[in-house]
């Protein structure tokens, strides 16, 4: 049996629940990570991942872009129906004028525009996952895999007897252990 203590990462990037989502996205990008434990003082309070960030952005509609008034907009016009008749729907013209009213998710992640400040105004604490999947350092790698799979998580936090964070095991760490040690020895 290989214990988690032999494969876990101990040099961890942790984040505060008070960071904004924009700040944590920058932390992820600069550290080259896709998630981090959330720690308040020395207490483990949750975990945040890029999945949480993307889910936050995709479940919240974009705000229309600010536009300058344009004289050529004029009156609302109707568009001919598909059958060629003159009766049309006034809404079609409006829809075409504003067809780019919402930015895609990546644009909202990168924008500092006041229209897209939701990432800068929302904290990690309000989006993080509080149901942390964890095991002690002496737990077997197989136990971690059995726990992570049905939970659908890619990282498991390793906590000591007093609940303090001591490491992290990712699905990549488990794959590496299997590749290096074989299935029977992990």
Task: Describe the 3D structure.
This protein is of the alpha+beta class and 186 residues long. 32% of the residues lie in helices and 16% in strands. It has helices at residues 21-31, 50-58, 90-97, 105-110, 118-121, 141-151, 171-181, and strands spanning 35-40, 43-49, 79-80, 88-89, 134-135, 155-159, 165-170.
Q: Which overall shape is indicated by the principal axes computed on the Cα atoms?
A: globular
Q: Helix content range of the residues, please?
A: 25-40%
**N- to C-terminal distance:** 6 Å
Strand content: 15-25%
Largest sheet: 3 strands, mixed
**Mean of the pLDDT scores?**
80
Flag low-confidence runs: 90-95
What gyration radius follows from the Cα positions, in whole Å?
24 Å
Q: What is the chains' assembly state?
A: single chain
Tell me the number of helical segments per DSSP (H or I, 4 or more residues long): 7
Query: How are helices and strands ordered from N to C?
Result: HEEHEEHHHEHEEH
Question: Which structural category do the helix and sheet elements fall into?
Answer: alpha+beta
Strand order of the largest sheet: 5-6-7
Quick take:
By secondary structure, this protein is of the alpha+beta class.
